[in-house]
What does this fold into?
Amino acid sequence: MLELSAVHKYFGGLHAVNNVGFKVAPGTIKAVIGPNGAGKTTLFNLIAGGLEPSSGTITFKGRPIQGLKPHRVASLGMARTFQNIKLFHGMTALENVMLGCHIRSRSGFLAGMFNLPRTWKEEKDIRARSMALLELLDIAGYADVEATSLAFGQQRAVEMARALAMEPDLLLLDEPAAGLNIYETAEIARLIERTREMGITVLLVEHDMSLVMDISDEIVVLSFGEKIAEDVPDEIQRNPDVIKIYLGEDEEAAV
Amino acid sequence: MEFIKRYLPIAGLLGIVIGVQLLTSATDTAYYLTQLTMAAYYSLLIIGLCVLMGYAGQISLGHAGFFAIGGYLSAALTSNDFSAYRETAVMRFMDTAGLLLHRQSLYGEPLLNIQPWPACIIAVVVAIIIAFLLGIPVLKLKGHYLAMATLGFGIIIFRVALAAEFFGEADGISEVPPFQLFPGVSVTGDFSDRVQNYYIAWGLLLLGLVLLLNLIHSRVGRALRSIHGSEEASEAIGVNTARYKLYTFVISAAFAAIAGSFLTHYNGGIGPSEAGVMKSVRYVAIVAVGGMANLWGVLIMGILLNFMSLRGMFGTYDDAVFGVILILIMLFAPQGILSLRIRNIFRTKRNDT
It folds into this structure.
């Protein structure tokens, strides 16, 4: 589904991503973890098209995507959420999800201005599809509430619904549990698993270890821009290098 | 249901337009129609700018420039003498196509002009092309930088209008002929055609309003609002933000050019002040007063303030009034004057939550 090989990213003298390569197999949930400043978000932006790698290749469904604009990557079938939720101001939850249908609909400027019959019909379809997604995520009751005024957990759900509305093949989640309490985190975990059941591959960056260990099929560990481990959760938990970067060497000795 | 919600106010506005005309005829105050006609043309530009600023979130301090391109090209092509170019291939082609007008000057010399229809189309197409060429680089800029770049464009157009002999230098172009839309229907400032022209202007404005209302309630309109909200998130859901901003800029420029072309024929002339930077500031101020992302509010303010200005209610402080309006709106009612509750003005501390 997604393959990175020998990806480097420099910001001036800072080597933010150093020779990172891994694969995400279709239908799996893969997590990228690492301490603050390990280069996780940078890696995400490289994949989603916000940044161009200094060198290396990123292929998505067999086609190179490095350096493409984010909207091109999105239209190839990759959706993402943001660490600090980015819902659109002044728009209802429903409208936010309807925006997710953007790439799956066609009407342009002229069709919109003249409100052609097919535009009218398309608009109805979009509305119905978005409403169905809100129902799926149990937030249909907030459809007409301004999205940014919802509780944090509900905002996450709306953002998730917006991403699902794009009918992606691959969903990138940037710290989906950030700022959530344990109940909301459990809810998100359930949602992510449901996403996989829908046939969508998931790649997530996360700090919350319990979430990552519970739902991931495979985990990549980054530290100072380098990949130091890639394995199934059980092995990662036993990996001495991983324990070292998370707990420090002295603490490891103490354990 | 939504259909009715969108179009019923337009039917209401049409009723008011007709009502005002009947009222002025009955009370022998038809002279108001002249300013209402001009206000309608200016408002056509302003609602186009409203979609660009309020919905797509991109400022332009150069829209008087597009208005001037429409107006000046229409005026120059229909009023300047092209006899000297009679034998060029372009002119011969246009002559065969019936796009030229052969006249005689007061002294019996032959004059060669371009018919108003092709002149108007050329003017609007040129404005669209310039908007494209300007928009591609400058719309990469944001906020103040975009404001400065479009301001620069406005100044260029103003100086060109002021300096080019083709555009009449400081005098502008006068004695622009009427623009015959169909046989018997002309855009002209002739008093006998005042009622007819009132309906032409308002018809055009209503048509523009319907198109823009449809646009903002469509998939594209939603995408434009998302760009305003967060360009990054908008890209992430697959909106080609660069293209959408550019198309909106071009559409608003086309609205401005059409308004410029028609109003120039109505006034029978155009001068460099129409291209002035203060005109652009005025348009931006009116969009702000109307509430930015509020097409109806902007329309109402566009008609009201332009009408007051054209009636001379602001006297010699005309431009100053619009400057003051802009400052007051930004201070007290950034959501537009229609959002204002009087008590807010007297409240000393504002809750930001």
Observations:
- Strands of chain A lie at 2-11, 14-24, 29-33, 55-60, 63-64, 78-80, 170-174, 201-205, 218-223, 226-231.
- DSSP finds eleven helices and ten strands in chain A.
